[in-house]
Design a protein that fits this description.
Blueprint: E1 5-9, H1 14-30, E2 33-40, H2 53-78, E3 84-90, H3 93-102, E4 107-111, H4 125-133, E5 138-141, E6 151-154, H5 159-175, E7 179-185, H6 195-216, E8 222-228, H7 231-239, E9 244-248, H8 262-270, E10 275-278
Parallel strand pairs: 1-2, 1-4, 2-3, 4-5, 6-7, 6-9, 7-8, 9-10
Antiparallel strand pairs: 5-10
């Protein structure tokens, strides 16, 4: 198990190159090894193509090896302090990345859409599948990937939200920035309670959620924000000035059977900066 390894998916597309750039920065910050993975599948043509299947497979592997060699050499010239390697493999991309994540990586990084997707899609199927099923934290690189602004964390009191808070504080510490903890709520349409009491209760829940992490990371500046509205929109608004948004994979508001909630999905499609999806720790 190599908990200091970051796995990043690469397919030669602009989105995947942005993901690799973000991942190598993260590897440098965390002292991690970077493993770049190009996983590809062949769509076998019909009889109008005379070339044997073996020749096509060899050509595809050669192309994959060349892509990996080019990006690894490019990064090694820029980041001599980061250990970088790469692999091209004939396999389905999503299961390959998930398997490598389960093997003990600290993080999986993907672009928001790869070279194999339809151009009108906001989020590719590989990114969606990896973020949904990974037990390892996943970053979907999109929007502004440059440093600047706080690390935003969504807070709703769920186990995965608490895990995301912890990851957000550590990410902020490594970046020398602060954490903006955001809790959104919708008051009941019919209630006998004064609005001020509902707001005060929500604020108390927000403060309670961050208290332990505030104590563990006293050097990290913390700002809390309570929003009367929907969580997805509140975090989307906050992403406009953030360098990273961290959310749990599924909050209290979703259906119990979902592996990835609507808030995470919405952010992966529309956030203005990279999105970090964190699943709750497995039960002992």
């Amino acid at each position: 198990m190599d908990a200091q390894r970051i796995v990043v998916g690469f397919d030669g597309s602009g989105e995947s190159r942005a993901a690799v750039d973000w991942a190598v920065d993260e590897a440098e910050r965390t002292g991690s090894r970077l493993h770049i993975v190009y996983a590809y599948q062949l769509a076998w043509p019909g009889g109008e193509y005379a070339g044997p299947a073996g020749e096509m497979a060899a050509e595809a592997q050669e192309r994959g090896d060349a892509l990996i060699a080019e990006i690894v050499e490019h990064l090694r010239r820029r980041r001599t302090g980061v250990s970088i390697d790469g692999t091209a493999v004939h396999a389905a991309p999503s299961p390959t990345l998930l398997e490598l994540g389960d093997a003990g990586a600290r993080l999986i990084v993907v672009g928001n859409r790869g070279g194999g997707g339809l151009t009108h899609l906001l989020l590719g199927s590989v990114s969606q599948q990896v973020a949904t099923h990974a037990r390892t934290p996943v970053v979907v690189v999109r929007g502004r990937a440059a440093a600047g602004g706080p690390v935003v964390a969504g807070v709703d009191g769920s186990p995965s939200s608490d895990a995301a808070l912890g990851v957000a504080f550590e990410a902020a510490r490594l970046r020398g920035t602060g954490v903006l903890a955001v809790r959104a709520y919708l008051p009941p349409m019919v209630t006998s309670l004064p609005y001020a009491m509902i707001e005060a209760t929500e604020q108390q829940l927000l403060e309670a959620a961050v208290a332990g992490w505030r104590e563990k990371y006293p050097a990290v500046a913390l700002e809390t924000r309570l929003v009367n509205g929907r969580t997805a929109q509140a975090l989307l608004d906050a992403s406009g000035t953030a360098q990273l948004v961290a959310v749990g994979s599924r909050g209290h508001g979703g259906f119990a059977g979902l592996l990835l909630g609507s808030v995470g999905q919405h952010l992966m499609h529309h956030a203005a900066c990279p999105v970090l999806i964190v699943h709750a720790p497995a039960a002992p």
